[in-house]
Amino acid sequence: EPEVTQTPSHQVTQMGQEVILRCVPISNHLYFYWYRQILGQKVEFLVSFYNNEISEKSEIFDDQFSVERPDGSNFTLKIRSTKLEDSAMYFCASSKLGGDEQYFGPGTRLTVT
Amino acid sequence: RKEVEQDPGPFNVPEGATVAFNCTYSNSASQSFFWYRQDCRKEPKLLMSVYSSGNEDGRFTAQLNRASQYISLLIRDSKLSDSATYLCVVTYNNAGNMLTFGGGTRLMVKP
User: From the CA of A9, how many Å to the nearest CA of chain B?
Assistant: First the structure.
């Protein structure tokens, strides 16, 4: 069964550093998403992406964040200058069509020290 | 404001029991409804979509009540492997495809 994959599984970085989190969505899916979950809190939407552009973003997704689909398979989330409060699990998800069920990757645990 | 509320639990039940969770959503401009399960420190996994007519998948039954703005999940004949956090998830009209998650209800099934 096709799955969303994410790398790395765990990333430790110092405050102020840039990080890039990588995702490979399910191959025939057209919509891609990033969510985050701070330990003990709800899963929160960050951004959705379709047809090579952002279709929706939340208040969390400020100028420090960006997304890119650099090739036909990868979907990345970049945080330019990490803050302590960016420490969280970051989940990538994809869906075949808008409004369809979304399937999540295993997540990247980001720890900012 | 778009909120999805759940009783955090935990619900402690013996194997074989039937357990039900409810979820309320605050915004009537809701579009789609889902139940996901999440194991500790893992990703949310889709359990089932929730349709207006209700739907059943094996031991799991989901119901939607639009008038009262709540969604329910019923688990029959609980198994140890059902122990997890169950997340109620809603999408809203004119909000793209973003999923809005509830805080989850924790279920612990004991032998």
Answer: 11
